[in-house]
Predict the 3D structure of the following.
Amino acid sequence: MKMEELPSGLNAFRDVFYQHDKVLECISAFNDVLRYNDGRREPSSLAISGRAGTGKTTLCSHLLAPFKTEVFEEPEGIRKVIPAFYQAVPGVATIKDLAQKLLIRLEVSDLSGNRTQLTERLIQNLKTCKTRFYILDEFQHLVDPRKEKTHATVRNWVKDLMNESMVPIILVGTADLLTLLEGDEQLERRFRRSCSLSEFALNDDFRKVIIFFTKRLNEHCSLKAADVIKKSLFTEQMYAATGGNMSATKDLFVESADQALTKGDTELSDAHFREAYRRIRISSALAPEGVNPFSQDADRLGLSRTVR
């Protein structure tokens, strides 16, 4: 019988963050943005793009982690310093909707008024809360490629928001968000730094991901990897199952480990992954529908074997 809740160790494993080269490039670019904005007259910001499941939101959590809200008691009353915060843009959103959500993040209760009034209130509270940066995830939802007429409105809003508040914005989303930056010299100047995350190729870099996850599972859940998981065939099977997608790879590890722990197993084997793949849907899989890659040999997988 399956446990109602994941074991605490497996919950901790879900939070592990593999910092590969592309992630480190994004972290470096982010640190540069914060450093360059100290004392600058014009804020410099960052755009991070990538397909779903490549680790953008996990990266956002990592960037935000050191910045905690602080509360101060002053003669005038309680004052909060909110140095950073995160907001995902809803699938269907307007600038007014987004401004209201940002005000909520700053714990502002007055959400009345039109777009201009809300933006002015947002700018004032960004200053009052001494915000150093904020992250807008899934920003492509505000930049519909089919509605080019709205691009200028969004561009101008972003520029005005940055210029008046002097607070950098970290824009995160799919490659569609880059449409916002193209062809606008002023905005391009403010977003001089950009980076991207992508799926792994079938090579030693992807093998390192598997090694990292197996080590962390052993640390958090005392689950050792069976010898078969250490072989190149397993790397190819995992690649066929996930297409090198980071999120899909972790999901398979979590589901497989959950099965092993539920059964009382102390070793994680390919059988657990075979069953996990059968249970969950992975949109990035390269294997044909109905084919379980963890049941296939190298020849049937038909992948270019560059892992040694």
In short: Residues 204-221 form the longest helix (18 residues). Residues 76 and 128 are 13 Å apart (CA to CA). The chain has a mean pLDDT of 90.
